[in-house]
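Try this one yourself first.
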């Protein structure tokens, strides 16, 4: 995957994540449902973490010889933080919506 496509996917992810967060906040405010607001804020916070991590990332790579098969690389710290924020936000938002 070339760098232009990676950049386009990153920007699309930031924009769509922010749009989901804003939509959640707007719907929660219009329906007076705090659960939607919590979910929207969680999405916005996850986008902020991803953006900061992407802005401070340094390229990593090696010039090793050709290899066959897939290579598993574990997610970095930002992925875990963003995923944790979204999961906690969805759980808390779901509990508030169920009340």
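Now uncover the answer:
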């Amino acid at each position: 995957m070339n760098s232009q496509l990676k950049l386009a996917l990153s920007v699309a992810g930031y924009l769509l994540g922010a749009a989901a967060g804003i939509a959640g906040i707007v719907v929660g405010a219009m329906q007076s449902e705090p659960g939607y607001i919590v979910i929207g804020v969680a999405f916005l916070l996850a986008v902020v973490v991803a953006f900061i991590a992407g802005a401070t990332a340094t390229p990593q790579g090696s010039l090793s010889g050709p290899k066959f098969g897939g290579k598993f690389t574990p997610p970095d710290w930002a992925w875990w933080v963003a995923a944790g924020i979204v999961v906690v936000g969805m759980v808390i938002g779901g509990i508030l919506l169920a009340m």
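Discussion: The longest helix spans residues 3-31. The chain has a mean pLDDT of 84.
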